């Protein structure tokens, strides 16, 4: 018999849908099977408990003392999705990484406001084997409910670092040995498929839609994804994915 | 003074949110500024009328006799979005293209169920300057409200063709001079960055999540997007975008 979810735990699950609730408790919600699995893989020590609907009691490999059984109706009320997979974990938000930069380059998001795009970009970065995802104030909270669902929990396996401004972000990069800053620009810049040094200890900045990169950073170079279709632009997640997999192509070939 | 939206027109706008409503009338809804602009650019002759909220009366360049003024409250009720741009067009769905295949390759979607992914893929294809977007039964209706919003109306500028099965789709390709069929596979296949002939009068098939390509097609080759991060997979829209822009890279370099 699993322990039942307490009222206090249910209240915490509700509170964690807001930024203030996360700030107060230092915790976040992590919903969906793949997301919870990623969490248990990377940071099992951070997990407070995992709420499971009856239908999902046997789908997770997890220490039984972490599991909390939740009746279907209550679970549906607590879930952030219409068709839930029956699993929501509550975990402490890991402390922000401050050590050396890992991997070949840093992907930086400047005021990216859409949690779906954030999650998609995080997944692409993870799939490409890179680690550093930096972002500026004005971007969505990566530990928000939707961002974690959309990123399927890859937040827990990336080094995410937050900065007030793009200038501060670039400055921190310099101190970590970053050589160049590139800004993805929909209108002008060097062809991203031929630009040298694009992934050589660099920062690549992607701006939130619809304004692109807002912060100025002197000395940054512009790169463009060529679009023969003469179309305005693709969205931020698509642009980031094209650049991220161009790094994979160069590395493997 | 603009003509006011009639009750009949309001009823049509409501009916077009369902597949049966679209089938009955042969029309679709096209919401959002960029989507309506794409429609007016590609198929102005298909537009029946454009409903505009008061706030948006001056944002469109369009024959005034097509415009219908809608009070804010009614517009919000008719809109499919929470933060609308105040513009919804109703247009006849263009007849399916049956002529020669245009561009370098065909992108085919096999049972892709997510309208957001469909729209994203359509935009990437349009940005890359390709034309042919084919799909099998079981995929979402590309003329649905969400698919058009997410695709920002690029449906109107692509050649979209529907087939009952993947085998039927490949057969039609053969009759149009298609040389090879490639299936994007998350687990095995030739490296998409080195695979020759990938964009030489080919069909590239992307499967809907989470099952990948369901239909079998004898003689198809498998291609894989390498993922050094050892991560399960990226989503269908990301995978399609990586492949589409690999075609741009090869063409330009």
Task: Provide structural commentary.
The structure is a homodimer. By secondary structure, chain A is α/β, with parallel strands linked by helices. The first copy, chain A, is about 30% helix and about 25% strand. The first copy, chain A, is built from eight helices and twelve strands. Chain A has helices spanning about 5-15, 20-25, 35-40, 70-80, 115-125, 145-150, 165-175, 235-250, and strands at about 5, 25-30, 45-55, 65-70, 85-90, 105-110, 130-135, 160-165, 180-185, 190, 200-205, 220-225. A seven-stranded parallel sheet of chain A has the order 8-7-6-11-9-12-10, with helices on both faces. In chain A, helix 5 packs parallel to helix 8. The radius of gyration of chain A is 20 Å and the shape is elongated. The model of chain A has no long low-confidence stretch (mean pLDDT about 90). The interface between A and B is large, with 37 and 37 residues.
The SSE string of chain A, one letter per element, is EHHEHEEHEEHEHEHEEEEH
**Main sheet specs of chain A:** 7 strands, parallel
Residue windows where pLDDT falls under 50 for at least 5 positions of chain A: none
The total of helices of chain A stands at 8
Structural class computed from helices and strand pairing of chain A = alpha/beta
- Proportion in helices of chain A: 25-40%
Report the radius of gyration of chain A as a whole number of Å.
20 Å
- Oligomeric form of this entry? homodimer
Biggest sheet, spatial arrangement of strands of chain A: 8-7-6-11-9-12-10
């Amino acid at each position: 018999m699993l322990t039942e979810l307490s009222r206090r735990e249910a209240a915490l699950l509700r509170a964690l849908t807001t930024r203030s609730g996360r700030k107060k408790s230092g915790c976040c919600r992590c919903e969906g099977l793949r997301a919870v699995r990623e969490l248990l893989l990377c940071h099992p020590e951070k997990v407070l408990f995992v709420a499971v609907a009856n239908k999902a009691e046997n789908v997770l490999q997890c220490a039984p003392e972490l599991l909390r059984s939740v009746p279907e109706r209550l679970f549906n009320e607590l879930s952030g999705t219409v068709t839930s997979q029956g699993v929501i974990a509550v975990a402490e938000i890991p402390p922000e990484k401050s050590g050396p930069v890992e991997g070949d380059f840093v992907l930086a998001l400047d005021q990216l406001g859409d949690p779906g795009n954030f999650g998609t970009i995080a997944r692409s970065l993870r799939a490409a084997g890179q680690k550093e995802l930096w972002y500026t104030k004005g971007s969505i909270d990566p530990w928000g409910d939707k961002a974690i669902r959309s990123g399927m929990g890859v937040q827990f396996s990336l080094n995410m670092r937050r900065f007030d401004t793009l200038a501060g972000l670039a400055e921190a990069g310099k101190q970590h040995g970053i050589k160049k800053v590139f800004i993805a620009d929909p209108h002008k810049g060097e062809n991203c498929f031929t630009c040298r040094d694009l992934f050589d200890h660099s920062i690549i900045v992607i701006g939130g839609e619809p304004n692109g990169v807002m912060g100025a950073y002197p000395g940054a170079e512009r790169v463009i994804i060529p679009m023969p279709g003469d179309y305005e632009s693709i969205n931020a997640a698509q642009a980031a994915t094209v650049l991220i997999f161009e790094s994979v192509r160069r590395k493997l070939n």
